[in-house]
Amino acid sequence: MKRLSLLLAVAVLAMAGCATRQKTDDKQQSAAPIVDAVSGPGGKSARTVAAASAAPAATASGGGYLAGDGPGGNAPEDLDAIPDAVPKAEPLHRYANRPYSALGKTYTPLQTTGTYKERGVASWYGKKFHGQRTSIGEVYDMYGMTAAHPTLPIPSYARVTNVATGKSVVVRVNDRGPFLHERIMDLSYVAAAKLGYINNGSAEVEVESIAVSGTAPVEMPAVKVEPLPPASTIPVETAGRSTGKVFLQLGAFKSPQGAESFLVRMRAEMGEGNKPLMLYEKQGLTRVHLGPYASESEARSAAARLQDRLGFKPLVSRH
Questions:
Q1: 11 assigned to some structural domain
Q2: 133 occurs within a structural domain
Q3: Domain containing 266 — which CATH number?
Q4: Do 295 and 158 sit in the same domain of this protein?
Q5: Both 56 and 202 in a single domain?
Q6: Residues 170 and 293 placed together within one structural domain of the fold
Q7: Mapping DSSP to helix (H, G, I), strand (E, B) and coil, where does residue 55 land?
């Protein structure tokens, strides 16, 4: 009788343990961030829609991607089959290689190729920027082998290697950024997919500029840019008679395209719930402004709140 009671007790404990373990497993599974590495044929996701929607926004430590960004719905069937960029001599863009300021930091772009090699964290950008202008006025294609970099000459070419796997790709640098989280490069969606870090959102990479001849800065006519859809049009205010409006300045650019590209990135990085971002032309610079605010006091309080998030205190500016 005692033996029978002991066996029953053991059975009950075993069943309870299984139930507890099942609850734990279910909880872990539902909380695990799942991001599509590659969309399947016809744009069908390799994961369920419900699972993919659990992916978090990217943070300074990496993982996931920016809120509202992510893989596109009509990805090519075989991303690995998309060829790398082929380095060739191209004249540097007339404006996009001049010194500029963004988020309180001044950047001085390099003027020659083949002289840069650095290891750091790279991220990627996808559908939220697809179809937007890059810093040289070209339209960003998330399925093209391109990248954004703060100081490499544009356009130029670079070899990017995933330090963890040894995989490498060649990309064409045609945009400026990233500017937050101490990242050194933003790769296109397809370039990041070929390097195998779509799920993680970021990876440690080595970036090496590729030397090609004929890239000295030259005077070029203005780049012809195809009109973008009305939804992506960003209004520009030009300095004139004082209106008394108060804004916070996040960056100032010689190139209007560079300012527009930066504004789009800041809009994605900062998310919803902030004041509107706008472009403001004054004294030959296109500035990225946040606001307006009711008073300079309110603007200064907002600048203090943004300081930790952006890494610098935005400049209070009155139009």
A1: no
A2: yes
A3: 3.30.70.1070
A4: no
A5: yes
A6: no
A7: coil
At 37, the pLDDT band (50, 70, 90 cuts) reads very low
Whether residues 244 and 95 share a domain: the answer is: no
DSSP 7-46: HHHHHHHHHHHHHHHHHHHHHHHHHS----SS--GGG--S
pLDDT in tens, 55-105: 333 333 333 456 567 776 777 888 999 999 999 999 999 888 999 998 888
Q: Are residues 244 and 202 part of one domain?
A: no
Instruction: For residue 306, give the 3-state DSSP assignment.
Output: helix
Residue indicated by tokens 């998309």: 82
Domain count, the chain: 2
Residues contacting residue 307 through CB under 8 Å, at least 6 positions apart: 313, 314
Ranges of beta strands (E only) in 100-235 are: 100-102, 105-107, 117-125, 146-148, 156-162, 168-175, 183-188, 202-209
Residue found by looking up tokens 């309870």 in the block: 16
Reduce the DSSP state of residue 308 to 3 states and report it: helix
Residues counted in the chain: 319
What one-letter code names the amino acid at 271?
Answer: G
Predicted TM-score (pTM) of the model is 0.58
CB 157 within 8 A of CB 110: no
3-state SS, residue 231: helix
Task: Give the domain range for residue 298.
Answer: 234-318
* Beta pairing partners, 315: 249
State the pLDDT at residue 2. 45
